[in-house]
Design a protein that fits this description.
There is one protein chain. The chain has one domain. Helix content is 71%, strand content 0%. It is built from seven helices and no strands.
Length: 129
Amino acid sequence: MADGNDLVTENVGHDGNTDTFVIWNTAVKNVTNAPVVLSGTVMKQFQYLELTERKFSPGKYDFLKETFSKDPDALSKITKAEKTIKSLLSKNDQAKKETSKKPAAPRKKDEENYIKMFEKKDKKDKKKK
């Protein structure tokens, strides 16, 4: 399963002469003009966009889909990864809900029976002494 980092590095690569590299750099320039970001590696740019600009997060790749909208191969990979991650996040959320359910409170009758049981035991123990 590809995460956002893989989706970018696999499709953009490191060759500044490819179309995808130019598209990526144009997208980054549309977000920031910080020289340290623009001169950074694709990974550093990705991290900046994710952590500082909040352009994407696990399962939310609208920025990537928009950036690579004219590249069917990249778009297919992005969409597939997005669906997979959303599914995993959904399953994780469901598991959390199930484990965080509080146990049902004991019914009043159960409490009364429980107390009576110990009272009887207590009386028997006192008679033995």
